[in-house]
Every structure is written in structure tokens, then in C-alpha cells.
Design a protein that fits this description.
mainly alpha, 6 strands, single chain
């Protein structure tokens, strides 16, 4: 993936999506640690719905709670939570965070060893931890046909989770993440360990939060962590035999506080942007209740659907003129704007393509108050009526025809479409503009385009939107288009 430079897919991971994903994954991690807090021996649940399955097993076995583990967990919470709060409050004054987790692990190990908590109270401890390394050997290439299809989604999900966590902490600490570089890093982190019987490597939310909360900032922390793990695997591992599992669970849960605090930001997020809040909620619920992998996929798909829905029914206001300037703004958003007689200025605030082409036409008809298709149908009906009644003539009779049909005459002669917010056109969009121009032209209303970007201009020219010699009808500003419309109508009136 890094070789083919497909890191651009990370742009689909929005801030609200990442935040919801991390919060949902935090619930999954928290749930997986509850059984250790209570000292329960229940099978580990995996796959879809693991959170619900785990809680069902916990509630079914709650009567088997180990009181020793429960008390130890409570005491560790009493120590770690205040220590974390003090570290955060005085981090500007402390040269380095107080490593309270280390003190708790050492103290708990000593208490469990000398108090013989496993023998006396049946407490769950880490037990024997194997030391040393297996000798390296090349992977079994004959297994590739059997695992290739499964490896692709694992690679994609691993990359997405890693980048999502990277983006979250990059935003928090003010640096940038290059997705393609992350792909190379993940690739090498999986290729080299494959010779040492290692599992697939990806970012881990719980461990990342632990390192971040203890003040780790650079790659040196990874080097130190690697050396400590190496030391543990070779020498120190037997010393943690008596360490209770509930202590490690408490450390993990305490460091999830930052992700779980996102719930406090929900009212502010809802007030700021309701769509982003819904994306956050959908991603969080899917990640927690289904699985982290599917939850991330659901979040990305739902986020993209929201973008499509936004462009499907965008804002499309009529514009008014700011006096003594060449600026046109929304009549619904600003006061004291003026309109030019006989000219309607319309802005469509989205790309014009196959999904929203009908919305463009219906909104234009609604805002202008004139549906040219209906007007043409009314004219044909009037002509048939005139033939039946054997009433001849036109011109002065036309107004009476509108009155007889209960229709008002069209109150404008030109529509100026402000295209400054139309990023692109597809074939359907060009055809829609052609239909609009033709329909309004049939009722003697001209349609002019203004402020088209180079991409839209190029699409219009390639789509043969203009007849030969009409390219000058593409205006650089709304003000120029309005002046042209008024001037053209004035010259036409004087000739008449």
C-alpha cells in the first residue's frame, strides 16, 4: 500500500469520525478489562458483538467476584486517578510526569508476593511469563494462498486504525502525519517480525493512551519501551509472577479517561455542527456494539453518505446587491440589500452533478417563483382555448390570457446564476443547465452564468454549452452579468 502511494484514503477519516471511533474502541477496551477488576474467569469474546457478549458473561458470573481483586482494584483507582489529575494540573511546573503507574505496579507486586494473595484468596496473578526468544526462521510460503485474502482486510484495517490514532494525537500535540510514511512503517514492522513468530502489528489504543498520558512525546519513548520489554523478556519477567491482573486492568482503564471525556463535549459539538455529531454517534455506537473494524468501516461509509446528502440538497439563496459596491449577498442572510428590476440572481452552493440536478431545477423554480415548463403548458392551453373560442390576436391579449388562467405574468427578464460555489460539473450538470436555459428562453427569460471557475468553464466549453460566438456570455462577476442584462434589455426596449 505504501509502494502504491494510497495514503490519500486517510482524508476520509474526519475529526468527528476519529473521535467517535476512539471513544467506541475505548468502551471495547474497558469492557475487556472489567473481568480482571472483578477477578472473574470467563472466556474472552471476540468478533461481532463482543462487547455485549462480554457483559452478558460478566453479569452471569458476577456472584463469583473475587473480593481481593475487587478491593485491590478500588485501592489502585484511589491512587491513580488523583495522581493523574495532579499530573495534568501541574504538568507545566513538573519537569517530568510522576510515574505513578510504575510505583503502583511495584507496590502491588510486593504486596501480592508477601501477602500470598493467590494462595490465600485465589487472586488472579500474571503467573509464569516465558523468557527469551524463539530462533528466527523464514515464513512458510506455502501458507500464502490460504491467508492472502484475509491479509488484505487486515492490512487495510490495521492501516486505518493506526492512521486514525496518529491523526488524533497529531491534532492534539500540533504536528502532521504523512499517511504514506505510516504505511511504510507498518509494513516494515510486520515484515521484519515475521521471521520471529510475531503477530500482525498495528496501533493499540490502550497502550497508546498509556504512553501519551505518561508524557511520552518522541520516538525515544519507543526505544526505551523496547529496551524495557527486552529486559523483561530476558531477565525481569519472573519478578512479575505475583502481579495481580486487576492492577494492569486499572492502569488501562484510568488511561482511557481522555477518550471517554468526549461525552462532555457533545452539547458543544451538537450546537456547532449537528451532522458531525451524528457521525460521531454512529461511529461510536457501531465501533462499540459491533466491532472496531466494522465500526470504522461504518463510520467512513456514513460520513461519505452525509457528504453526498449535503450536496444533494444544498443551500440555494437569491442574492441582493450591496449598495455602492459590486457585491451580491444572500437576501435571507443579510438585510438592506437591493434587487435590480427585472433581474433575479441565484446561487447554488454545491457542485452540480447527477445526484442534485433535480434539486437544482426545483430550487431554482421555487426561488424565482416561475416554473417555465408550467408557463409553457399554460400558454399552450391558452392557445387551444383561443382557437376553440375563435379569439384571434396576440400582444395586448397576452395579459388577459394570464388573468383568465389565474397566472401572473413573469416579473423578470433575466436570471443570473452565480457559479462561484459550483466546484465542478458532470455531463448531467451540463445537460441540466442547457435544459434550464432552453426552458426559460422559451418564455423570453435569459439565463446568464457568472463567476465560473476554470474547471466549470472548461466543462461548459467541452460540453458545447454555448452556441458559436456566445462564449462572451460567461461573466467574471455577478455585477457584470447584471449590468449586461440591464443594458441589453434597455437597448431592446429603446428599439421597440
Amino acid at each position: 500500500m505504501g509502494f502504491f502511494q494510497v495514503g490519500f484514503v486517510s482524508v476520509y477519516l474526519s475529526d468527528s469520525l476519529l473521535s467517535g471511533f476512539v471513544t467506541g474502541a475505548s468502551f471495547t477496551v474497558l469492557t475487556s478489562q472489567v473481568k480482571y477488576l472483578l477477578g472473574l474467569d470467563i472466556p474472552r469474546s471476540g468478533g461481532i458483538g463482543s462487547l455485549i457478549t462480554t457483559w452478558i458473561n460478566i453479569l452471569r458470573n458476577i456472584h463469583r467476584t473475587n473480593i481481593c481483586d475487587l478491593i485491590t482494584s478500588f485501592l489502585c483507582f484511589l491512587v491513580l486517578i488523583p495522581a493523574k489529575e495532579l499530573n495534568e494540573r501541574f504538568k507545566s511546573k513538573l519537569k517530568a510526569p510522576i510515574p505513578m503507574e510504575l510505583f503502583v505496579v511495584v507496590a502491588a507486586t510486593l504486596a501480592s508476593h508477601f501477602g500470598k494473595l493467590k494462595e490465600n484468596y485465589g487472586s488472579s496473578v500474571s503467573g509464569h511469563i516465558p523468557t527469551g526468544f524463539l530462533p528466527p526462521r523464514p515464513p512458510d510460503w506455502s501458507l500464502i494462498p490460504n491467508v492472502a485474502l484475509d491479509a488484505i482486510p487486515i492490512a487495510v484495517i490495521g492501516f486505518a486504525i493506526t492512521v486514525s490514532l496518529s491523526e488524533m494525537f497529531a491534532k492534539k500535540h500540533g504536528y502532521t502525519v504523512r499517511a504514506n510514511q505510516e504505511m511504510y512503517a507498518i509494513g516494515f514492522c510486520n515484515i521484519i517480525p515475521s521471521f520471529f513468530h510475531c503477530f500482525t502489528t498495528s496501533a493499540a489504543l490502550a497502550k497508546t493512551l498509556v504512553k501519551e498520558s505518561t508524557g511520552c512525546r518522541t520516538q525515544m519513548s519507543g526505544l526505551v519501551t523496547s529496551l524495557v520489554i527486552l529486559l523483561v523478556l530476558l531477565v525481569i519477567a519472573p519478578l512479575f509472577y505475583s502481579l495481580q491482573k486487576c492492577v494492569l486492568a486499572v492502569i488501562t482503564i484510568v488511561n482511557l479517561r481522555g477518550a471517554l471525556r468526549k461525552f462532555r463535549d457533545l452539547p458543544k459539538m451538537w450546537h456547532l455542527n449537528k451532522v458531525d455529531t451524528v457521525i460521531w454517534g454512529v461511529t461510536m455506537v457501531a465501533t462499540a456494539l459491533i466491532s472496531t473494524e466494522i465500526g470504522l468501516l461504518v463510520g467512513v461509509c456514513f460520513s461519505m453518505l452525509c457528504v453526498i446528502f449535503r450536496t444533494q440538497r444544498p443551500e440555494a439563496p437569491l442574492l441582493g446587491w450591496v449598495a455602492e459596491s459590486e457585491t451580491y449577498e444572500s437576501l435571507s442572510a443579510y438585510k438592506n440589500l437591493q434587487t435590480k428590476p427585472g433581474v433575479v440572481v441565484f446561487r447554488f452552493e454545491a457542485p452540480l452533478y447527477y445526484i442534485n440536478k433535480e434539486c437544482f431545477k426545483s430550487t431554482l423554480y421555487k426561488q424565482t417563483g416561475v416554473n417555465p415548463v408550467w408557463v409553457k403548458a399554460a400558454k399552450k392551453k391558452a392557445e387551444k382555448r383561443m382557437l376553440k373560442e375563435k379569439e384571434a390576436g396576440s400582444g395586448d391579449k397576452q395579459s388577459s390570457i394570464y388573468v383568465d388562467l389565474g397566472l401572473e405574468p413573469v416579473g423578470f427578464h433575466t436570471i443570473v446564476i452565480d457559479c462561484c460555489t459550483v466546484q465542478f460539473l458532470d455531463t448531467a450538470g451540463i445537460r441540466t443547465l442547457q435544459e434550464v436555459c432552453k426552458d426559460y428562453g422559451d418564455i423570453d427569460v435569459h439565463v446568464l452564468l457568472a463567476q465560473c471557475n476554470p474547471s466549470v468553464r472548461s466543462s461548459l466549453l467541452r460540453g458545447e454549452f454555448f452556441k458559436e460566438g456566445e462564449e462572451h456570455l460567461l461573466f467574471h462577476s455577478v455585477h457584470q452579468a447584471v449590468d449586461f442584462a440591464l443594458g441589453t434589455r434597455g437597448h431592446g426596449a429603446s428599439r421597440n
